[in-house]
């Protein structure tokens, strides 16, 4: 590995990208992708169910392959690259974290809703005990004002996070909104600051460059855009753009391009595009899991599901509040009849 | 039409998007797309062969349908929207321009290489005579320094262009490069300034927002990203982003989303992605027509076609200089043997 990298990339196609293929990764696919990523000198490779360790379930989607087998496979070919795992407290537990560490995972990314960093304390501390590098991952970062994000990031830092991430889970943030978040974090925490973007508004690259410009030095990308919604910042494209800008990632551009074209593209059943559904989620700023509920409610009340999602976004409805979806649909139908 | 639009959008899916489907548009498809665009209140709809009027040829690709039939069809359903045509002097002639005007086309966009505005004089003047609104379209704008672009734009303004465009044909420009170009044009010309971006580096949206921030008020987009290379700024996504920013386009967001999903997506044989080839073109900053030549030369000399394209970009090789491609391949092969 080179040691003059300006930015350390975490490749998330084997975790976030799992959403794009309904969690159907096989051991062979993970071996091929992780090996090629390691050959291209990508420093961190995240491997887990799309919703983190232990995400495989009827609620979040069943994995085709036990994620521990996938982690083990990735570790076996990772070389100098480090395997990362994602864990959402409440879905994954300390048990899975330990199992992943025992298999050779070197980084634990503990993800919470942007206002709920306190639930990450135990997991971050335990990951440190296990000798892992730790990341605090503040999801749905558009849902909190800047000072709240700073407060939550400081909590994660106090628990032992080596890096705190602003995560634009819904692909909702505009570049200036990313700037103010990263700038505030850089001014307030002493650890690394990272950014994870989604492309629902075709702004993943713009937001990533804004984050880097403000001092973020940990960046997530997904090769060939494999990720939830419209996918993430496309890693091989990001490497090209950063090369053009003279920013060192240490990642081999040609190898990333070849991996994207020859190994990852054939895994995708449907190429990643910005569709009506993913655009709606990014515009509204809501969880992708709301989409299906909203469609059902829209049909029942004969309203446009987009109006429901936009209203849910305005009300900052979060996961667990799915009951609100039917209420909102009913209100829209009622208002229309007046 | 609303009259408080901040930005006037030109939809190019029926012209630039023609590249994405090998110029196979049918009259029915154009009728459906143009009607839906008009219903969504898009002010300008461009219809022509991908390489402009009279582009249908063995060299540039044969159109399935005579473009005049497509223009006529689009005009018949355009309502308040205006049909635009693109013309590259040297490919199209005054004859085709007149024919298009007679069919009801209301805007002529005269496109030249960024350093060759002088060849547009006659065509811009003639379009004015025909009563058309006129646009000077400076292609491959990354290939000239800012002062050269200003000089060329002023020429177009002097010929009668109502608008001058910075065109990032190769999808090569970075947002700061767009900023400096648009800023200089705004300071130097009295007419409207426009921007046309391509997404090869996943920066079409970022570049478009940079252009608008610097005062561009004419913007090109292509619904569902239909365009050469990795496609253009995705129109329906742009409308959503501008709504979020409080910038008025007068275009109906839901109708654009529905059109993209229900009418345009089914036309595409292969969804628009950023592939190895389109990324290479954007990274190198060369004409898409060089790609095939470079692959052939790469095979002959056993070198990587990307190295050839990057070197051609550095040397600012332009269309008509295809002989250089083999020379460059030979040089790379020779240098490697040393």
Structural key phrases:
44% helix; 13 helices; homodimer; Aldolase_TIM (chains A, B); 2-IPM_HCS-like (chains A, B); 338 residues; Helicase, Ruva Protein, domain 3; alpha/beta; 8-stranded parallel beta barrel; TIM Barrel; lyase (chains A, B); manganese (chains A, B); globular
Could you give a short description of this structure?
Chains A, B: Mn(2+) binds at residues 16, 196, 198. Chain A is of the alpha/beta class. Chain A has helices at residues 27-39, 67-77, 94-103, 121-129, 146-159, 175-188, 204-213, 235-245, 253-264, 276-284, 290-301, 305-314, 323-337, and strands at 8-11, 44-46, 82-87, 107-113, 133-139, 163-167, 192-196, 218-221.
Mean pLDDT of chain A: 96
Multimeric status of the protein: homodimer
CATH fold-level name of the largest domain in chain A: TIM Barrel
The backbone outline of chain A, from C-alpha atoms, is: globular
Strand percentage of chain A, roughly? Answer: 5-15%
Main β-sheet, spatial strand arrangement of chain A: 1-2-3-4-5-6-7-8
The helix-strand sequence of chain A is EHEHEHEHEHEHEHEHHHHHH
Q: Structural class given helices, strands, pairing of chain A? A: alpha/beta
| Rg of chain A computed from alpha carbons, rounded to a whole number of angstroms | 19 Å
Going by CATH, the homologous superfamily of the largest domain in chain A would be: Aldolase class I
- Estimate the helix proportion of chain A, in percent: 40-55%
Low confidence ranges of chain A: none
Q: Could you describe the largest sheet of chain A, including whether it forms a barrel?
A: 8 strands, parallel, barrel
What is the number of helices of chain A?
13
Count up the domains of chain A: 2
Which protein chains are joined by the largest interface, and how many residues does each one contribute? Answer: A-B, 42 and 42 residues
Q: Quick one: how many beta strands of chain A?
A: 8
Task: Please state the second-level CATH architecture of the largest domain in chain A.
Answer: Alpha-Beta Barrel
Distance between the termini of chain A: 66 Å
CATH level 1 name of the largest domain in chain A: Alpha Beta
Binding site for substrate (chains A, B): 15-16, 169, 196, 287
Keywords (chains A, B): Aromatic hydrocarbons catabolism, Lyase, Manganese, Metal-binding
Site (Transition state stabilizer) (chains A, B): 15
Organism (chains A, B): Niallia oryzisoli
């Amino acid at each position: 590995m080179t040691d003059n990298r300006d930015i350390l990339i975490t490749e998330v196609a084997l975790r976030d990208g799992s959403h794009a293929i309904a969690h159907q990764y096989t051991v062979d696919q993970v071996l091929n992708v992780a090996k090629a990523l390691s050959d291209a000198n990508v420093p961190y490779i995240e491997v887990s169910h799309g919703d983190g360790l232990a995400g495989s379930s009827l609620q979040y989607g069943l994995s085709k392959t036990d994620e521990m087998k996938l982690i083990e496979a990735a570790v076996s070919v990772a070389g100098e690259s480090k395997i990362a795992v994602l864990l959402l407290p409440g879905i994954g537990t300390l048990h899975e974290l330990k199992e992943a560490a025992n298999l050779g995972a070197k980084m634990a990314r503990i993800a919470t809703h942007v206002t709920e960093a306190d639930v990450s304390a135990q997991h971050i501390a335990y990951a440190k005990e296990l000798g892992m590098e730790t990341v605090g991952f503040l999801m749905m970062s558009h849902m909190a004002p800047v000072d709240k994000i700073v407060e939550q990031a400081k909590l994660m830092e106090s628990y032992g996070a080596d890096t705190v991430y602003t995560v634009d889970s819904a692909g909702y943030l505009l570049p200036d909104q990313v700037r103010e978040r990263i700038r505030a974090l850089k001014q307030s925490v002493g650890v690394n600051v990272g950014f994870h973007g989604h492309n629902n508004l075709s702004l993943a690259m713009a937001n990533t460059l804004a984050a880097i410009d403000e001092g973020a030095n940990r960046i997530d990308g997904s090769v060939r855009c494999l990720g939830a919604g419209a996918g993430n910042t496309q890693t091989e494209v990001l490497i090209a753009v950063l090369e053009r800008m003279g920013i060192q990632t240490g990642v081999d551009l040609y190898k990333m391009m070849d991996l994207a074209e020859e190994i990852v593209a054939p895994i995708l059943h449907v190429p990643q595009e910005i569709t009506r559904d993913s655009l709606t989620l990014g515009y509204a700023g809501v969880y992708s899991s709301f989409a299906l509920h909203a469609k059902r409610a829209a049909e029942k009340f004969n309203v446009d599901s987009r109006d429901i999602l936009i209203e849910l976004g305005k009300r900052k409805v979060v996961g667990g509040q799915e009951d609100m979806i039917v209420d909102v649909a009913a209100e829209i139908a009622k208002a229309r009849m007046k």
